[in-house]
Write a structure and sequence with these properties.
The protein is α/β, with parallel strands linked by helices. Helix content is 31%, strand content 21%. It has 26 helices and 36 strands. The longest helix has 18 residues. The relative contact order is 0.06.
């Protein structure tokens, strides 16, 4: 039977969950095409806050990688916004002209951030907080500016403020309400939250009316002004004042919208039965839901009707909010504010950071607000939904389910007392029985395994503690012995260490050979495993295994750093941070010739040319005539130096010469992750050697080496490694350490994490205590780097495909 055609507009969590449900029950009914306005596959929008805070990365929050779409035969158009739909001819059209025919159309366009009409809202530095691009813009701003203002004291606003604060900014939260998160918390809980956040360094202006945003001569925002005449400085303003259903496309094509795209109980639009809608853009019985759990419920019902089963109705959702705001657990459900005809049971322990309020009406629990201790939130929500009379448990109700006598398990843990049908993960609708069955049947021992097989704890993460309790309760003693290895990715069960050992033991030289030898599930791997396997091959068998350019990320393929506007930055190498008039003239000429808009001195003592067009990159490299700075790859980035004894009256050693020598020895070195070095000529440490992968500090009697430092989001002070007398010894010892890291580090593992994993004593035994092994490590490093090409000038040898720089149609 010929397949029908399903087109989905939007590539977010609600829409893709609908496709997942559809593929479960009718995998062969449709040819599916998906249009996503963002250049990313489906990701967990809830986890953007941990990305902003530096706790996770973009790859960590991807829910459905590109391989998932390919595996299910889904045609995916990323970065293509749909601008029109011809409902008569049933054709979807994107802004670049891409078209797709449909038999069924699913609108999952989500929501857009509400930006209040404040004068100055269009200034540079004023952004909303809704997607990956916004998150990356905020991370970038935090590296350049000091003062941030977040307008909106809801969940997203507080998460944005916390993330920016963790990245070093001074942050003020402006909120028009009398207390924070008034939709989720009562005033008492909100005051506890505010006090806790103020103790961490956040500042607040509540009940504040923003009058305007003031800008400077450069067109960038400089301050936020209020109606009372006061103002606060602001180099960055984040608008987090709520969201609105994204109905622009639906309205344009004549679909009825009112508070969202109006849908029936089958999630069909009331205008056109061939057009369905789910998610934040949909309005069901006058309500547009913004929480994950209702949207996933919609997806399940919608899938049954797309599958032509004709069953299932979405009748709306009773919602609860279980959140973790900057590490503080919160829960609310129902009428937690109470009223004249309700009564309240309250427990408040401000010193202990716990607040609980239960609202009762007609002998039923009708609302709950919890701060600090939310373990019984699911139980209270269950009572609220069931409408059960609570007179027989009222005296114990405040103390949670485990203390309720009718459970028959007094004193047991929360996990033990829960019935199998009790919901654990509200976002994904997963109950205790499902989780426990998966743990038993599939032999699960870790939280990651439970997330993979059940999706519990995989969305907002607020039920993580309860899922861990279920693991301990179900797996028993085995829970304390989880597997010590973690698979590289979904393509394999092999860990990074398994792959490294197999490549060495079996003398594997190509990616296909490695996949075959280790039984890869997907023949071509994915964006996570291909770069890692490629690196392991070339670092284990230099001169034998050939580098595969297509297994590198975009920056490494183009040998420049892609910027958020699609242009690139170029950083020519300057040995030890030194340069001369000839190089500076060439740089200036290139800037003028190619109209490069920004020239910036980096923290690593280099000159960064920002805004280079991709098609100009080969010509820029040629005209600069300087070696690659490798500022784009998992490589040696820079060796930072001070002026040392040659010029400084405090200098004890010639740091500049040693820095130049180290950089010339190591500059072609690829590694599991970026590597930064620094050489300071005296203990005053002007080159910041104490927070580098390898830091060298000159002292009266020679040099001190420090290893495994990190100056990133979470600063790690380097470990003292050894003390040496000569510069030649420094080069050998530093090179041996880096070669050990190159041979044993896991891909995307910084030196700090490598040393933490294997232990500093292990590294010292390999490099310091065994002279023969140290020399062998250094010799292997020299062998692997000998003859490595400069990708800017040895295109063919470096495997640079120059076709990537050609303009299409040229």
């Amino acid at each position: 039977m010929k397949k029908m055609k399903l087109v989905m507009v939007g590539n977010g969590m609600a829409g893709v969950r609908t496709l997942e449900e559809l593929l479960k029950i009718a995998p062969n009914l449709y040819d599916i095409t998906v249009f996503g306005a963002e250049p990313h596959p489906n990701y967990n929008r809830i986890l953007l806050s941990p990305v902003l805070a530096g706790e996770q990365t973009i790859p960590d929050i991807i829910l459905n990688p590109l391989s998932w779409y390919a595996e299910h035969g889904i045609t995916l158009h990323l970065g293509r916004k749909v601008v029109d739909v011809d409902r008569r001819r049933r054709i979807v059209r994107a802004e670049d002209g891409t078209e797709a025919e449909y038999d069924r159309l699913l609108l999952a366009t989500g929501s857009t951030p509400f930006v209040p009409p404040i004068p100055g809202k269009d200034l540079q530095g004023v952004i909303a907080y809704r997607d990956i691009a916004d998150t990356e813009a905020m991370i970038d701003a935090a590296t350049k500016y000091r003062h941030a203002v977040v307008i909106g004291g809801g969940l997203l606003g507080l998460e944005a403020a916390n993330g920016l604060m963790l990245r070093g900014m001074q942050v003020t939260v402006v909120h028009i309400g009398r207390w924070l998160m008034e939709r989720q918390l009562d005033e008492s809980a909100a005051q506890l939250l505010q006090k806790a956040l103020e103790a961490r360094g956040l500042q607040f202006k509540l009940g504040a009316q923003t009058q305007s945003l003031a800008g400077g001569d450069d067109g960038r925002v400089k301050a936020v002004r209020f109606q009372d005449g006061s103002e606060v400085p602001a180099d960055l303003v984040v608008m987090s004042a709520g969201i609105r259903p994204n109905t622009a496309l639906a309205e344009k094509i004549g679909i009825h919208c009112q508070r969202g795209i109006v849908v029936s109980d089958t999630l069909q639009t009331v205008t056109d039965p061939r057009v369905y809608s789910v998610g934040e853009c949909a309005a069901h019985r006058g309500i547009a839901y913004g929480l994950v759990a209702p949207l996933f419920e919609q997806g399940k019902v919608c899938a049954t009707h797309l599958a032509q089963f004709g069953i299932g109705r979405y009748l709306g959702s009773q919602t609860s909010t279980k959140l973790k705001v900057t590490g503080i657990d919160l829960f609310s459900a129902g009428n937690f504010m109470g009223g004249a005809d309700t009564e309240e049971i309250v427990m408040s322990d401000p010193f202990g950071g716990v607040y609980k309020k239960l609202v009762i009406q007609d002998d039923k629990l009708v609302g709950a607000c919890l701060y600090g201790d939310t373990v019984d939130g699911s139980y209270y929500f269950k009572l609220l939904r069931e409408g059960r009379k609570i007179h027989d448990i009222r005296d114990k109700l405040m103390f949670g389910e485990s203390n309720i006598g009718d459970t028959g398990h007094e004193g047991h843990s929360k996990a033990a007392t829960m019935p199998d049908e009790a919901e654990v993960c509200g976002c994904n609708g997963v109950n205790k029985g499902t989780i426990c069955k998966a743990i038993k049947d599939k032999g699960l021992f870790t939280l990651e395994e439970v997330r993979k097989h059940t999706k519990a704890s995989a969305s907002c993460g607020s039920c993580t503690g309860l899922v861990e309790q279920l693991l301990m309760f179900t797996a028993g003693g085995d829970y304390s012995k989880p597997p010590t290895k973690k698979a590289m990715c979904a393509c394999t069960d092999a860990s990074h260490q398994d792959v490294r050992e197999a490549i060495r033991a079996q003398h594997l030289l190509t990616i296909p050979d490695t996949y075959q030898a280790l039984g890869w599930r997907t023949p071509n791997g994915c964006a996570s495993c291909r770069p890692a396997v490629n690196y392991y091959l070339i670092s284990t068998w230099p001169k034998e295994a050939r580098d595969d350019p297509q297994s590198h990320f975009i920056n490494e393929r183009s040998h420049a750093n892609i910027q958020k506007d699609g242009t690139y930055s170029v950083v020519p190498r300057m040995w030890g941070g030194t340069t001369n008039s000839s190089e500076l003239r060439r740089i200036a000429d290139v800037v003028d010739k190619y109209q490069i808009p920004t020239v910036k001195v980096t923290g690593g003592q280099r000159i960064d040319l920002l805004g280079v067009k991709k098609e100009d990159l080969p010509k820029v490299w040629h005209d600069l005539g300087m070696p690659s700075g490798h500022a784009y790859g998992k490589t040696l980035r820079t060796v930072k130096t001070c002026v040392g004894s040659e010029w400084c009256r405090f200098g004890t050693q010639d740091s500049t010469s040693l820095g130049i020598e180290l950089e010339r020895v190591l500059w072609r070195m690829y590694a599991p992750h970026k590597v930064k070095l620094a050489v300071s000529g005296c203990p005053r440490n002007c080159a910041e050697s104490g927070i580098k992968d390898v830091g060298i500090i000159g002292v009266d009697s020679g040099w001190e080496i420090y290893v495994a430092g990190n100056g990133g989001i979470k600063t790690e002070v380097a470990h003292f490694f050894c003390k040496l007398k000569t510069a030649a010894e420094v080069v050998e010892y530093a090179g041996a350490f880096l070669q050990l890291y190159r041979e044993e580090g896991w891909y995307l593992e910084r030196t700090v994490h490598y040393v933490n994993r294997v232990g500093l004593d292990y590294v010292k035994a390999k490099v310091l205590d065994d002279a023969a092994q140290r020399k062998a490590l250094y010799d292997r490093l020299a062998f692997s780097l000998d003859g490595e090409p400069d990708p800017w000038f040895e295109f063919e040898k470096a495997g640079v495909d120059l076709r990537q720089f050609e303009t299409l149609g040229a």
